[in-house]
Design a protein that fits this description.
CATH class of the largest domain: Mainly Beta
Number of domains: 2
Strand order of the largest sheet: 1-2-10-9
CATH architecture of the largest domain: Beta Complex
Number of strands: 10
Order of helices and strands: EEHEHEEEEEEEH
Radius of gyration: 20 Å
Length: 212
């Protein structure tokens, strides 16, 4: 019989003791936390003005790696959204605007300078450096964040660490998950298990249909 016990938890991490479970299943949960649980990340960037020292592509890449607070209840994966619009809609993407100018001295543009159309979907930290601007330089852009999965790109991984270790006794394992801040660590584990169970049921149905 499977037993799950929370042995440690902080704002961005959770440690679980799993007992009565096969190692392969426990490791599948770990992998799903990394690769299958969706989170928000900036994916499309429209550069309106950029006179900084960074090329447009580098600037867009840096924006993409900023962890974004995620709400899985209100937003859909693009492939699951009924809008059918390649540009997305209010149910599957969030618009961010950045308009920054260099002042009398070197100005650092931070993640907190990104203005989101949804105040609940924002960078997990306001102090992540994006670019430095000298006097007279400027950056003006629109950035679109959407849900994605870690198996597509690391920017969509909701956790920074997911480690499975042997526990005390046979069939006992410790799973530690540390969140980027996009989602609570406990929600990452819960969602990972839900997705794994769903895929296993799909396989079961497919195998049953094939044998019939």
């Amino acid at each position: 019989m499977l037993k799950v016990k929370v042995t440690g938890e902080t704002a961005n991490s959770v440690t679980l003791q799993l007992e009565g479970i096969d190692r392969s299943y426990a490791n599948a949960v770990r992998r799903f936390c990394i690769a299958e649980v969706p989170s928000m990340a900036i994916d499309d960037v429209v550069i309106l003005e950029n006179s900084s020292v960074l090329y447009d592509e580098i600037l867009a890449h840096r924006l993409g790696m900023v962890p974004i607070k995620t709400d899985l209840e209100r937003y859909n994966l693009p492939e699951d959204c009924d809008c059918g619009n390649p540009l997305g809609c209010h149910k599957c993407r969030v618009l961010f605007v950045l308009d920054a100018k260099g002042r009398d001295k070197v100005t650092t543009v931070y993640s907190g300078d990104l203005v989101s159309e949804d105040r609940d979907v924002r960078p997990v930290s306001e102090s992540i450096p994006i670019v430095k601007l000298a006097q007279g330089q400027s950056v003006k852009l629109e950035a679109y964040a959407r849900l994605g999965k870690g198996k597509e790109h690391s920017k969509w991984q909701p956790c920074t660490v997911a480690v499975l270790t042997e526990g005390k006794g046979e069939g006992v394992f410790n799973l530690m998950v540390e969140s980027t801040g996009a989602l609570p660590a406990r929600e990452i584990v819960t969602k990972g298990i839900e997705i794994l169970e769903k895929k296993l049921k799909e396989i079961q149905v497919a195998v049953g249909g094939a044998s019939a």
